[in-house]
Protein backbone atom coordinates (compact mmCIF):
# COMPACT_ATOMS: atom_id res chain seq x y z
CA UNK A 1 0.00 0.00 0.00
CA UNK A 2 1.23 3.47 -0.93
CA UNK A 3 1.79 5.81 2.02
CA UNK A 4 -0.47 8.88 2.29
CA UNK A 5 2.23 10.79 4.16
CA UNK A 6 5.99 10.35 4.10
CA UNK A 7 8.47 12.06 6.38
CA UNK A 8 11.95 11.85 7.83
CA UNK A 9 10.68 11.92 11.40
CA UNK A 10 7.26 11.54 12.98
CA UNK A 11 6.48 12.48 16.56
CA UNK A 12 3.50 10.79 18.23
CA UNK A 13 1.99 13.21 20.76
CA UNK A 14 2.31 16.97 21.07
CA UNK A 15 2.97 17.44 24.80
CA UNK A 16 6.14 19.16 26.08
CA UNK A 17 8.14 16.10 25.01
CA UNK A 18 6.57 15.84 21.58
CA UNK A 19 6.52 19.47 20.51
CA UNK A 20 10.10 20.04 21.68
CA UNK A 21 11.23 16.95 19.74
CA UNK A 22 9.34 18.06 16.62
CA UNK A 23 10.52 21.68 16.74
CA UNK A 24 14.15 20.69 17.32
CA UNK A 25 14.00 18.11 14.51
CA UNK A 26 12.52 20.69 12.13
CA UNK A 27 15.16 23.25 13.16
CA UNK A 28 17.82 20.67 12.37
CA UNK A 29 16.44 20.34 8.86
CA UNK A 30 14.39 17.15 9.15
CA UNK A 31 11.06 16.84 7.33
CA UNK A 32 8.85 16.57 10.43
CA UNK A 33 5.29 15.46 11.18
CA UNK A 34 3.53 15.72 14.56
CA UNK A 35 0.56 13.41 15.12
CA UNK A 36 -1.83 14.38 17.89
CA UNK A 37 -5.27 12.95 18.62
CA UNK A 38 -6.61 16.30 19.90
CA UNK A 39 -7.16 19.45 17.87
CA UNK A 40 -4.71 21.58 19.87
CA UNK A 41 -1.01 21.09 20.44
CA UNK A 42 0.50 21.08 23.94
CA UNK A 43 -0.52 17.73 25.39
CA UNK A 44 -1.48 17.29 29.01
CA UNK A 45 0.78 20.04 30.31
CA UNK A 46 -0.65 22.94 28.33
CA UNK A 47 -4.25 21.78 27.96
CA UNK A 48 -5.12 19.95 31.18
CA UNK A 49 -2.02 20.02 33.41
CA UNK A 50 0.72 22.45 34.40
CA UNK A 51 -0.67 25.58 32.78
CA UNK A 52 -4.40 25.60 33.66
CA UNK A 53 -3.61 24.43 37.20
CA UNK A 54 -1.19 27.29 37.69
CA UNK A 55 -3.69 29.82 36.33
CA UNK A 56 -6.24 28.63 38.92
CA UNK A 57 -3.63 28.54 41.67
CA UNK A 58 -2.91 32.18 40.92
CA UNK A 59 -6.57 33.01 41.52
CA UNK A 60 -6.40 31.05 44.79
CA UNK A 61 -3.30 32.98 45.85
CA UNK A 62 -5.06 36.31 45.19
CA UNK A 63 -8.01 35.27 47.39
CA UNK A 64 -5.62 34.25 50.17
CA UNK A 65 -3.42 37.33 49.87
CA UNK A 66 -6.44 39.62 50.03
CA UNK A 67 -7.51 37.94 53.29
CA UNK A 68 -3.94 38.05 54.59
CA UNK A 69 -3.76 41.83 54.02
CA UNK A 70 -5.81 42.24 57.20
CA UNK A 71 -2.55 41.50 59.08
CA UNK A 72 -1.13 44.81 57.90
CA UNK A 73 -4.26 46.86 58.24
CA UNK A 74 -5.89 46.51 54.84
CA UNK A 75 -9.28 44.90 54.62
CA UNK A 76 -11.09 43.78 51.48
CA UNK A 77 -14.62 42.44 51.39
CA UNK A 78 -15.61 38.81 51.02
CA UNK A 79 -14.44 37.54 47.62
CA UNK A 80 -17.18 37.21 45.04
CA UNK A 81 -16.22 34.43 42.65
CA UNK A 82 -17.61 34.47 39.15
CA UNK A 83 -16.89 30.95 38.06
CA UNK A 84 -17.60 31.55 34.35
CA UNK A 85 -15.10 34.43 34.27
CA UNK A 86 -12.47 32.43 36.14
CA UNK A 87 -12.92 29.51 33.76
CA UNK A 88 -12.70 31.87 30.80
CA UNK A 89 -9.46 33.33 32.17
CA UNK A 90 -7.96 29.85 32.52
CA UNK A 91 -9.09 28.92 29.00
CA UNK A 92 -7.61 32.14 27.62
CA UNK A 93 -4.23 31.35 29.17
CA UNK A 94 -4.32 27.84 27.70
CA UNK A 95 -5.54 29.11 24.30
CA UNK A 96 -2.78 31.69 24.06
CA UNK A 97 -0.13 29.03 24.59
CA UNK A 98 -1.59 26.31 22.40
CA UNK A 99 -2.18 28.77 19.55
CA UNK A 100 1.39 29.95 20.01
CA UNK A 101 2.57 26.38 19.52
CA UNK A 102 0.52 26.01 16.34
CA UNK A 103 2.16 29.15 14.95
CA UNK A 104 5.61 27.92 15.91
CA UNK A 105 4.95 24.59 14.19
CA UNK A 106 3.87 26.40 11.01
CA UNK A 107 6.90 28.68 11.04
CA UNK A 108 9.11 25.61 11.13
CA UNK A 109 7.08 23.81 8.46
CA UNK A 110 6.47 20.93 10.88
CA UNK A 111 3.26 19.32 9.59
CA UNK A 112 0.45 18.66 12.07
CA UNK A 113 -1.76 15.64 11.49
CA UNK A 114 -4.75 15.18 13.78
CA UNK A 115 -5.58 11.58 14.61
CA UNK A 116 -4.69 8.58 16.74
CA UNK A 117 -1.51 6.82 15.67
CA UNK A 118 -0.77 3.10 15.89
CA UNK A 119 2.18 1.17 14.51
CA UNK A 120 1.59 -1.23 11.66
CA UNK A 121 5.26 -2.00 10.96
CA UNK A 122 8.72 -0.76 12.08
CA UNK A 123 8.46 2.16 9.61
CA UNK A 124 4.73 2.75 9.32
CA UNK A 125 1.91 4.23 11.37
CA UNK A 126 -1.78 4.13 10.73
CA UNK A 127 -3.45 7.36 11.76
CA UNK A 128 -7.16 7.24 12.48
CA UNK A 129 -8.72 10.69 12.18
CA UNK A 130 -12.07 12.24 11.42
CA UNK A 131 -11.73 11.73 7.68
CA UNK A 132 -10.68 8.07 7.91
CA UNK A 133 -7.28 6.44 8.24
CA UNK A 134 -4.00 7.47 6.64
CA UNK A 135 -0.80 5.49 6.30
CA UNK A 136 2.35 7.36 7.28
CA UNK A 137 5.83 6.10 6.43
CA UNK A 138 8.77 7.39 8.48
CA UNK A 139 12.53 7.00 8.74
CA UNK A 140 12.59 7.94 12.44
CA UNK A 141 9.86 8.05 15.06
CA UNK A 142 9.66 9.64 18.51
CA UNK A 143 6.97 8.17 20.75
CA UNK A 144 5.74 10.93 23.09
CA UNK A 145 2.24 9.70 23.86
CA UNK A 146 2.44 10.63 27.57
CA UNK A 147 0.26 9.35 30.37
CA UNK A 148 -3.24 9.53 31.76
CA UNK A 149 -4.84 9.61 35.22
CA UNK A 150 -5.22 6.31 37.06
CA UNK A 151 -8.95 5.65 37.55
CA UNK A 152 -9.43 3.79 40.84
CA UNK A 153 -11.94 1.01 40.15
CA UNK A 154 -13.65 1.53 43.51
CA UNK A 155 -15.39 4.61 42.05
CA UNK A 156 -18.24 4.72 39.58
CA UNK A 157 -16.66 6.83 36.84
CA UNK A 158 -19.91 7.29 34.98
CA UNK A 159 -21.00 9.62 37.79
CA UNK A 160 -19.83 13.14 36.93
CA UNK A 161 -19.26 13.95 40.59
CA UNK A 162 -16.23 11.62 40.52
CA UNK A 163 -13.43 13.64 38.97
CA UNK A 164 -9.91 13.09 37.70
CA UNK A 165 -7.54 16.07 37.42
CA UNK A 166 -8.91 17.01 33.97
CA UNK A 167 -12.49 17.14 35.31
CA UNK A 168 -11.37 19.13 38.36
CA UNK A 169 -9.76 21.74 36.10
CA UNK A 170 -13.11 22.15 34.31
CA UNK A 171 -14.36 23.85 37.46
CA UNK A 172 -17.99 22.94 36.85
CA UNK A 173 -18.97 24.23 40.29
CA UNK A 174 -17.54 24.83 43.74
CA UNK A 175 -18.76 21.84 45.73
CA UNK A 176 -19.63 22.45 49.35
CA UNK A 177 -17.59 19.39 50.30
CA UNK A 178 -14.76 17.87 48.27
CA UNK A 179 -12.82 14.68 48.99
CA UNK A 180 -9.35 14.54 47.43
CA UNK A 181 -8.00 11.00 47.21
CA UNK A 182 -4.20 11.21 47.02
CA UNK A 183 -1.93 13.72 48.78
CA UNK A 184 0.66 14.05 46.00
CA UNK A 185 1.46 17.15 43.97
CA UNK A 186 -1.61 17.16 41.70
CA UNK A 187 -4.08 16.36 44.48
CA UNK A 188 -2.68 18.99 46.83
CA UNK A 189 -2.59 21.72 44.15
CA UNK A 190 -6.24 21.14 43.31
CA UNK A 191 -7.13 20.90 47.01
CA UNK A 192 -5.66 24.39 47.39
CA UNK A 193 -7.68 25.78 44.48
CA UNK A 194 -11.02 24.41 45.70
CA UNK A 195 -10.31 25.36 49.33
CA UNK A 196 -9.54 28.97 48.36
CA UNK A 197 -12.69 29.13 46.23
CA UNK A 198 -14.79 28.01 49.20
CA UNK A 199 -15.04 24.20 49.33
CA UNK A 200 -14.59 22.29 52.56
CA UNK A 201 -11.76 19.99 51.54
CA UNK A 202 -10.75 16.60 52.96
CA UNK A 203 -7.58 14.87 51.75
CA UNK A 204 -6.85 11.19 52.27
CA UNK A 205 -3.41 9.74 51.61
CA UNK A 206 -2.35 6.11 51.82
CA UNK A 207 1.22 6.82 52.97
CA UNK A 208 2.33 8.48 56.20
CA UNK A 209 3.04 11.92 54.70
CA UNK A 210 1.74 14.30 52.07
CA UNK A 211 3.92 14.76 48.97
CA UNK A 212 5.66 11.39 49.14
CA UNK A 213 9.20 11.75 47.81
CA UNK A 214 9.91 15.06 49.55
CA UNK A 215 11.66 15.16 52.94
CA UNK A 216 9.19 15.16 55.85
CA UNK A 217 10.49 18.46 57.25
CA UNK A 218 9.74 20.22 53.93
CA UNK A 219 6.14 19.07 54.11
CA UNK A 220 5.53 20.18 57.71
CA UNK A 221 4.94 23.93 57.05
CA UNK A 222 2.37 22.97 54.40
CA UNK A 223 0.60 20.59 56.79
CA UNK A 224 0.49 23.29 59.48
CA UNK A 225 -0.98 25.84 57.11
CA UNK A 226 -3.57 23.39 55.78
CA UNK A 227 -4.70 22.77 59.34
CA UNK A 228 -5.11 26.51 59.94
CA UNK A 229 -7.08 26.79 56.71
CA UNK A 230 -9.44 24.06 57.86
CA UNK A 231 -8.37 21.39 55.36
CA UNK A 232 -8.87 17.92 56.86
CA UNK A 233 -5.88 15.71 56.14
CA UNK A 234 -5.97 11.98 56.93
CA UNK A 235 -2.73 10.05 56.41
CA UNK A 236 -2.39 6.26 56.30
CA UNK A 237 -5.97 6.19 55.08
CA UNK A 238 -7.44 4.03 52.38
CA UNK A 239 -10.66 4.37 50.42
CA UNK A 240 -12.35 0.98 50.56
CA UNK A 241 -15.73 1.63 48.98
CA UNK A 242 -17.81 4.26 47.29
CA UNK A 243 -21.47 4.55 46.45
CA UNK A 244 -23.00 7.28 44.32
CA UNK A 245 -26.17 8.46 46.05
CA UNK A 246 -28.57 11.25 45.28
CA UNK A 247 -27.27 13.43 48.10
CA UNK A 248 -23.57 12.84 47.37
CA UNK A 249 -20.83 10.26 47.02
CA UNK A 250 -20.80 8.02 50.07
CA UNK A 251 -17.21 6.91 50.68
CA UNK A 252 -15.95 4.22 53.01
CA UNK A 253 -12.49 4.49 54.61
CA UNK A 254 -9.94 2.47 56.53
CA UNK A 255 -7.85 4.76 58.71
CA UNK A 256 -7.34 5.73 62.33
CA UNK A 257 -8.37 9.40 62.12
CA UNK A 258 -11.46 9.33 59.88
CA UNK A 259 -15.02 8.02 60.32
CA UNK A 260 -15.78 4.77 58.51
CA UNK A 261 -18.15 6.46 56.05
CA UNK A 262 -18.75 10.00 54.91
CA UNK A 263 -20.62 11.68 52.08
CA UNK A 264 -19.08 14.30 49.77
CA UNK A 265 -20.54 16.47 47.01
CA UNK A 266 -17.60 15.69 44.77
CA UNK A 267 -14.53 13.43 44.82
CA UNK A 268 -11.24 14.12 43.07
CA UNK A 269 -9.14 11.01 42.51
CA UNK A 270 -5.47 11.95 42.12
CA UNK A 271 -3.57 8.75 42.82
CA UNK A 272 -1.04 8.87 40.01
CA UNK A 273 -0.77 8.54 36.26
CA UNK A 274 -0.29 5.53 34.03
CA UNK A 275 1.93 5.48 30.95
CA UNK A 276 0.33 5.28 27.48
CA UNK A 277 3.05 3.08 25.94
CA UNK A 278 0.81 0.03 25.76
CA UNK A 279 -1.79 1.62 23.48
CA UNK A 280 0.19 2.06 20.29
CA UNK A 281 0.54 -1.51 18.97
CA UNK A 282 4.26 -0.93 19.51
CA UNK A 283 4.88 -4.67 19.22
CA UNK A 284 4.14 -4.36 15.49
CA UNK A 285 7.27 -2.23 15.26
CA UNK A 286 9.16 -4.60 17.57
CA UNK A 287 9.34 -1.99 20.37
CA UNK A 288 9.44 -3.38 23.92
CA UNK A 289 6.82 -2.08 26.34
CA UNK A 290 6.67 -3.03 30.04
CA UNK A 291 3.56 -4.46 31.65
CA UNK A 292 2.82 -1.03 33.12
CA UNK A 293 2.96 0.72 29.75
CA UNK A 294 6.44 2.20 30.02
CA UNK A 295 8.87 2.06 27.10
CA UNK A 296 12.50 1.42 28.13
CA UNK A 297 15.13 3.64 26.45
CA UNK A 298 18.89 4.11 26.53
CA UNK A 299 20.81 7.32 27.28
CA UNK A 300 20.03 8.58 23.79
CA UNK A 301 16.28 7.97 24.19
CA UNK A 302 16.42 5.06 21.73
CA UNK A 303 14.08 2.13 22.30
CA UNK A 304 15.30 -1.39 21.52
CA UNK A 305 14.51 -0.52 17.87
CA UNK A 306 17.32 1.95 17.03
CA UNK A 307 15.35 4.29 14.73
CA UNK A 308 12.44 4.58 17.18
CA UNK A 309 12.84 6.86 20.22
CA UNK A 310 10.61 7.35 23.27
CA UNK A 311 10.46 10.30 25.67
CA UNK A 312 8.46 11.95 28.43
CA UNK A 313 5.97 10.46 30.87
CA UNK A 314 5.87 7.12 29.10
CA UNK A 315 9.54 6.31 29.66
CA UNK A 316 9.29 6.62 33.44
CA UNK A 317 9.34 8.83 36.50
CA UNK A 318 9.47 11.62 37.34
CA UNK A 319 6.51 12.49 35.13
CA UNK A 320 7.37 16.15 34.67
CA UNK A 321 7.13 18.54 31.75
CA UNK A 322 10.68 19.90 31.95
CA UNK A 323 12.07 16.35 31.89
CA UNK A 324 9.98 15.51 28.82
CA UNK A 325 11.13 18.69 27.05
CA UNK A 326 14.83 17.91 27.53
CA UNK A 327 14.35 14.33 26.41
CA UNK A 328 12.44 15.53 23.34
CA UNK A 329 15.21 17.81 22.18
CA UNK A 330 17.80 15.09 22.80
CA UNK A 331 15.88 12.48 20.77
CA UNK A 332 15.61 14.90 17.84
CA UNK A 333 19.30 15.71 17.97
CA UNK A 334 20.29 12.04 18.02
CA UNK A 335 17.88 11.23 15.17
CA UNK A 336 19.42 14.04 13.13
CA UNK A 337 22.84 12.43 13.52
CA UNK A 338 24.30 14.38 16.45
CA UNK A 339 26.35 12.38 18.96
CA UNK A 340 24.52 13.33 22.15
CA UNK A 341 23.35 11.56 25.28
CA UNK A 342 21.43 12.32 28.51
CA UNK A 343 23.76 14.19 30.85
CA UNK A 344 21.40 15.83 33.36
CA UNK A 345 22.41 15.02 36.92
CA UNK A 346 19.20 16.21 38.51
CA UNK A 347 15.58 17.05 37.71
CA UNK A 348 13.82 19.44 40.12
CA UNK A 349 10.36 18.65 41.49
CA UNK A 350 7.94 21.39 42.53
CA UNK A 351 4.57 21.31 44.27
CA UNK A 352 2.87 24.65 43.60
CA UNK A 353 0.97 24.45 46.85
CA UNK A 354 0.87 27.23 49.45
CA UNK A 355 3.59 27.24 50.65
CA UNK A 356 5.37 25.80 47.64
CA UNK A 357 7.63 22.79 48.14
CA UNK A 358 10.59 22.21 45.83
CA UNK A 359 13.38 19.68 45.94
CA UNK A 360 16.23 18.58 43.71
CA UNK A 361 18.96 15.95 43.75
CA UNK A 362 19.61 13.78 46.79
CA UNK A 363 17.09 14.33 49.59
CA UNK A 364 18.15 14.08 53.21
CA UNK A 365 16.08 10.96 53.78
CA UNK A 366 17.47 9.31 50.64
CA UNK A 367 21.01 10.10 51.82
CA UNK A 368 20.21 8.44 55.15
CA UNK A 369 18.70 5.39 53.49
CA UNK A 370 21.72 4.95 51.24
CA UNK A 371 24.18 5.57 54.06
CA UNK A 372 25.79 8.52 52.26
CA UNK A 373 28.12 10.72 54.31
CA UNK A 374 26.39 14.09 54.04
CA UNK A 375 26.12 17.36 55.89
CA UNK A 376 23.17 19.71 55.81
CA UNK A 377 23.00 23.51 55.85
CA UNK A 378 19.58 24.80 56.79
CA UNK A 379 18.46 28.43 56.81
CA UNK A 380 15.11 29.20 58.45
CA UNK A 381 13.18 32.01 56.78
CA UNK A 382 12.25 33.34 60.23
CA UNK A 383 15.67 35.03 59.94
CA UNK A 384 15.04 36.42 56.43
CA UNK A 385 14.19 40.10 56.23
CA UNK A 386 12.22 39.55 53.04
CA UNK A 387 10.19 36.68 54.48
CA UNK A 388 9.44 38.77 57.57
CA UNK A 389 8.43 41.70 55.34
CA UNK A 390 5.84 39.62 53.54
CA UNK A 391 4.81 37.84 56.75
CA UNK A 392 5.66 34.39 55.37
CA UNK A 393 8.39 33.13 57.69
CA UNK A 394 7.29 29.50 57.84
CA UNK A 395 9.67 28.49 55.04
CA UNK A 396 13.25 27.31 55.05
CA UNK A 397 16.02 26.45 52.62
CA UNK A 398 18.31 23.49 53.05
CA UNK A 399 21.26 22.19 51.11
CA UNK A 400 22.68 18.69 51.26
CA UNK A 401 26.46 18.44 50.83
CA UNK A 402 28.86 15.59 50.34
CA UNK A 403 30.70 15.61 53.67
CA UNK A 404 34.09 14.83 52.13
CA UNK A 405 34.14 17.26 49.19
CA UNK A 406 31.60 19.88 50.38
CA UNK A 407 29.96 19.59 46.95
CA UNK A 408 26.25 20.26 46.91
CA UNK A 409 24.32 17.13 45.94
CA UNK A 410 20.77 18.08 46.85
CA UNK A 411 18.50 20.74 48.19
CA UNK A 412 14.98 21.48 49.31
CA UNK A 413 12.98 24.65 49.81
CA UNK A 414 9.58 25.21 51.35
CA UNK A 415 8.01 28.64 51.26
CA UNK A 416 6.46 31.08 48.82
CA UNK A 417 8.19 31.01 45.41
CA UNK A 418 10.18 27.87 46.35
CA UNK A 419 9.63 26.62 42.79
CA UNK A 420 11.42 29.64 41.34
CA UNK A 421 14.19 29.47 43.93
CA UNK A 422 15.10 25.80 43.41
CA UNK A 423 16.74 26.46 40.01
CA UNK A 424 19.82 27.97 41.62
CA UNK A 425 20.41 24.75 43.55
CA UNK A 426 19.87 22.68 40.39
CA UNK A 427 22.46 24.81 38.59
CA UNK A 428 24.88 24.52 41.51
CA UNK A 429 24.60 20.73 41.45
CA UNK A 430 25.03 20.59 37.65
CA UNK A 431 28.12 22.83 37.90
CA UNK A 432 29.64 20.80 40.75
CA UNK A 433 29.57 23.80 43.10
CA UNK A 434 30.92 23.52 46.62
CA UNK A 435 29.42 25.14 49.70
CA UNK A 436 32.04 27.88 49.62
CA UNK A 437 31.16 28.77 46.00
CA UNK A 438 27.50 29.16 46.86
CA UNK A 439 28.21 31.15 50.04
CA UNK A 440 30.67 33.40 48.22
CA UNK A 441 28.19 34.19 45.43
CA UNK A 442 26.73 37.60 46.18
CA UNK A 443 22.95 37.32 46.30
CA UNK A 444 20.77 40.43 46.07
CA UNK A 445 19.35 41.70 49.36
CA UNK A 446 16.63 41.49 50.55
CA UNK A 447 15.46 38.46 48.59
CA UNK A 448 14.32 34.96 49.38
CA UNK A 449 17.14 33.77 47.08
CA UNK A 450 19.65 34.90 49.69
CA UNK A 451 18.52 31.93 51.75
CA UNK A 452 20.41 29.62 49.37
CA UNK A 453 23.69 31.42 50.06
CA UNK A 454 22.97 31.52 53.79
CA UNK A 455 22.23 27.78 53.91
CA UNK A 456 25.68 27.14 52.39
CA UNK A 457 27.27 29.45 54.97
CA UNK A 458 25.43 27.68 57.78
CA UNK A 459 26.96 24.40 56.57
CA UNK A 460 30.43 25.97 56.36
CA UNK A 461 30.04 27.58 59.78
CA UNK A 462 30.71 31.03 58.28
CA UNK A 463 27.24 32.57 58.60
CA UNK A 464 27.36 35.97 60.29
CA UNK A 465 24.17 37.77 59.40
CA UNK A 466 20.62 37.81 60.45
CA UNK A 467 18.92 39.55 57.59
P1 LIG B 1 1.75 14.51 27.43
O1 LIG B 1 1.78 15.91 27.83
O2 LIG B 1 0.93 13.54 28.20
O3 LIG B 1 1.27 14.51 25.92
C1 LIG B 1 1.03 13.33 25.23
C2 LIG B 1 0.16 13.66 24.04
O4 LIG B 1 0.11 12.53 23.21
C3 LIG B 1 -1.27 14.00 24.40
O5 LIG B 1 -1.63 15.23 23.85
C4 LIG B 1 -2.08 12.85 23.81
O6 LIG B 1 -3.34 13.29 23.32
C5 LIG B 1 -1.19 12.41 22.66
N1 LIG B 1 -1.38 11.01 22.28
C6 LIG B 1 -1.38 9.92 23.09
N2 LIG B 1 -1.52 8.80 22.37
C7 LIG B 1 -1.62 9.19 21.08
C8 LIG B 1 -1.77 8.48 19.85
N3 LIG B 1 -1.83 7.16 19.82
N4 LIG B 1 -1.84 9.21 18.71
C9 LIG B 1 -1.78 10.55 18.73
N5 LIG B 1 -1.62 11.27 19.86
C10 LIG B 1 -1.54 10.59 21.01
N6 LIG B 1 4.50 18.82 35.22
C11 LIG B 1 5.36 19.80 35.55
O7 LIG B 1 6.54 19.69 35.23
N7 LIG B 1 4.94 20.92 36.23
C12 LIG B 1 3.65 21.07 36.63
O8 LIG B 1 3.30 22.09 37.23
C13 LIG B 1 2.72 20.05 36.31
N8 LIG B 1 1.44 20.18 36.66
C14 LIG B 1 0.55 19.20 36.31
C15 LIG B 1 -0.78 19.34 36.68
C16 LIG B 1 -1.70 18.38 36.34
C17 LIG B 1 -3.14 18.55 36.73
C18 LIG B 1 -1.28 17.24 35.57
C19 LIG B 1 -2.26 16.19 35.17
C20 LIG B 1 0.04 17.08 35.20
C21 LIG B 1 0.98 18.06 35.58
N9 LIG B 1 2.33 17.93 35.23
C22 LIG B 1 3.20 18.92 35.59
C23 LIG B 1 2.84 16.77 34.47
C24 LIG B 1 3.01 17.13 32.99
O9 LIG B 1 1.79 17.56 32.48
C25 LIG B 1 3.55 15.93 32.22
O10 LIG B 1 4.74 15.47 32.82
C26 LIG B 1 3.83 16.29 30.77
O11 LIG B 1 2.69 16.77 30.13
C27 LIG B 1 4.38 15.07 30.02
O12 LIG B 1 4.64 15.41 28.71
P2 LIG B 1 4.67 14.33 27.56
O13 LIG B 1 5.18 15.05 26.36
O14 LIG B 1 5.38 13.11 28.00
O15 LIG B 1 3.17 13.86 27.33
From TrEMBL:
Its cofactor is (R)-lipoate; FAD. GO terms for molecular function: dihydrolipoyl dehydrogenase (NADH) activity. Binds 1 FAD per subunit. Keywords: Disulfide bond, FAD, Flavoprotein, Lipoyl, NAD, Oxidoreductase, Redox-active center. It catalyses: N(6)-[(R)-dihydrolipoyl]-L-lysyl-[protein] + NAD(+) = N(6)-[(R)-lipoyl]-L-lysyl-[protein] + NADH + H(+). Its EC number is 1.8.1.4. The active site is a redox-active disulfide bond. Belongs to the class-I pyridine nucleotide-disulfide oxidoreductase family. This is Dihydrolipoyl dehydrogenase. It comes from Noviluteimonas lactosilytica. The gene is lpdA. The chain holds residues 146 to 612 of 617 of the full protein.
Amino acid sequence: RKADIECAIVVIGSGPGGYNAAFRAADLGMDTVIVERYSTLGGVCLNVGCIPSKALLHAAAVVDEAAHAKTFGITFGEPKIELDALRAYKDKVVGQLTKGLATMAKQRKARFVQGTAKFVSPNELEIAGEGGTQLLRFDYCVIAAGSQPVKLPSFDWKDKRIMDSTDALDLVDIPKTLLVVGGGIIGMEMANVYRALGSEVTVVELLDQLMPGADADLVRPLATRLKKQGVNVHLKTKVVSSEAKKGGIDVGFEGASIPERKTYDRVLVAVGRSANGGKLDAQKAGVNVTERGFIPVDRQMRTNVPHIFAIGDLIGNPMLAHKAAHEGRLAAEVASGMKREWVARVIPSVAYTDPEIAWVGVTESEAKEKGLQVGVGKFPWAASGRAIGIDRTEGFTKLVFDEATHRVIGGGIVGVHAGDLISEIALAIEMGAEAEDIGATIHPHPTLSESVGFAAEVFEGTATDIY
